[in-house]
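User: Working on a comparison across species. This one is Urea active transporter from Bionectria ochroleuca. Can you predict its structure so I can line it up against the others?
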Amino acid sequence: MASSNEALVPLSQGVGYGVVVGVGLAFGLGMILVTQFLKRFLGERSDRSEMFMVANRSVGTGLTASAVVSSWMWATAIIWTAAQGYLYGIAAPFWYAAGCTIQIALMTVLAIHAKVKIPNGHTALEIVRLRYGFEAHIVYIFLCLVTNLLSVTAMILGAAGVITALTGLHIIASTFLLPIGVIVYTVVGGLKATFLTDYVHTLVIMILLCWITIAVINNDAISGVGSFYDALVEADKTTNITGNYLGSILTFKSKGSIIFGLVHSFGDFALVIMDTSFWQKGFAADTAAAMPGYMLGGIAYFAVPWAVGTTAGLAAIVLEKSPLFPTYPRAMTVDEINAGYVLPYTVMSVAGKGGAFGLLLVVFMAVTSTTSAQLIAVSSIGSFDIYRTYINPKASDKQVIRVSHWVVVGFGIFASAFATALHYGGVDLNWMGYFLATIIYPGIIPMSMTILWKKQSKAAAIISPILGLASGIAAWLGSAYAYYGELTILTTEAQLPCLWGAITSTFSSGIYSVIITLIKPQDFDWRIFLLLTEVKDGAPTSAVIEVDNLDQVQHPYPEKELRRMNRAKNIAAIASVVIGLVTWVVWPLPLYRDWVFNKPFFMGWVVVSIIWLFFCLFVSSIYPVFDGRKVLGLAFKLAWRALRGKGLPEQKEAEEERSEDDGQVLSDQEATKPGKIQ
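Assistant: Here's the predicted structure for Urea active transporter from Bionectria ochroleuca:
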């Protein structure tokens, strides 16, 4: 019953502390052991900048795809898609999925361009500085830090709310305790640690999500996909969703869903392009892995919000009228929906305490995994783009790593404090989700054009995001006041004001950039990006080499490798257009009509979404092991050799053995023949 605290809070606070603190620290300890294993048997040292920041640019396709899935495995995504399915019906989870996939496809294009044009890059911001100078660098440092801060804050707010709903743990306690384990293993392992822990987190999350979707479909109140449709038809008789055709749950013609999809899509473009962790993972990927890894991960991830939102979100509509539901006999309040309680209440209804514990692990794994990537991104900004650039340009590798560690710790604490302040200010998950696009979007077109358009001028890169931000905020607040006559939390999180703010921020910055560039265009030479250097172990670092003539500059990749990467650029561009057309035109628009899903179509819709979810499990959890089988085999072979007392091979011998196992040994002629940027 609603009045029963046990019904609303199925798990004890002890369980909450055990997961948030115990599991977090266990992952930290596990990563310490893994890092030492990699250092001893594969020579991968996380106390070197190239490994800490970009994982020695050696991550394969499988692990890259898993990392992309994990990077988008936001706790807020899993929670919010269920809430939107409950609010707007069957169309909303699809638009959530489409909004995520198109951004990852675009980032695939940017990642492969970055790999070709800036082979020694570490962060997107050092690229901005090299092309446009100090002023632009400062502007984009601010924009990227705001993106990272708001991303982490949204994740912590959403996750902390769900943990409170499941365990009764005080929301401020979970807010501050969530980052602890993440800080530990991020400091110890760097970016490679985030790839490896991303994999473990994603494995656990995907297994539990597959189980949750099946449990929702096969519980006593629903008992199968066909019965699920019948129950929704019955619920439709007493449900009227404003803006939906006939007010139906089962129609794709949904005004609320399409507005949500647009706002969410605009915001997610920025969460990819202005989030430096995505650029870092692109730099970290092996040259052959960047394009297929990103593309495969993006396609696979589509199933997560689609399947979870469709099953759990729609099931909440049915179960809310059942004694199984925690709030029965009352409906959920607006505050509960906006705080993200739709998914936990649904899981509690169909799987009891076991389901609640499973969801607790899902939320914890999701928030810690994505937070780890954000911590690495911010640490790279603090160490490379601020400390190494302006405070100590001759910093040694050891000094850069030390600053990175301090930034990880400091940002983790500050993000928790900021999330606490927003919570006490009345800001919830729903407000953060709709608000993000307006604030973080203005920089994405100028940032993208930095590596795509050689004509964009310095003035355009600096001024356009500032004007776009001002225009977006004005449109957002102005339309909220025009529609509702006041500015409050409720009016500023409303759909239409947030949509106008997002659209204005998105397109005005692009328009400003083009206009300012046309006044005085730049003719940038891409070869300048080749002047960026790697960080050398144990020696003072210099960000850019000096040459008298750019004709002296040669690309570090051989000609054969560059030809393959240039083909990958074309494939990525074509694939991105195809994915955009399929997910935004070919698939959804024929359904956007005066029609309610019939039973066979609904059953196919749900079954395909669940099958796709299991495909995502394969891509993110099984394929990386297969793809990395040679490196894993080599590591265990060396470990077994050491255990038998034969010792480890000399470094040169080990490197040759690893190269042979990877099948990537180039002939001397191929390896030394320089290529050209296209």
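For your comparison, note: The chain is about 75% helix and 0% strand.

User: Helpful, thanks.
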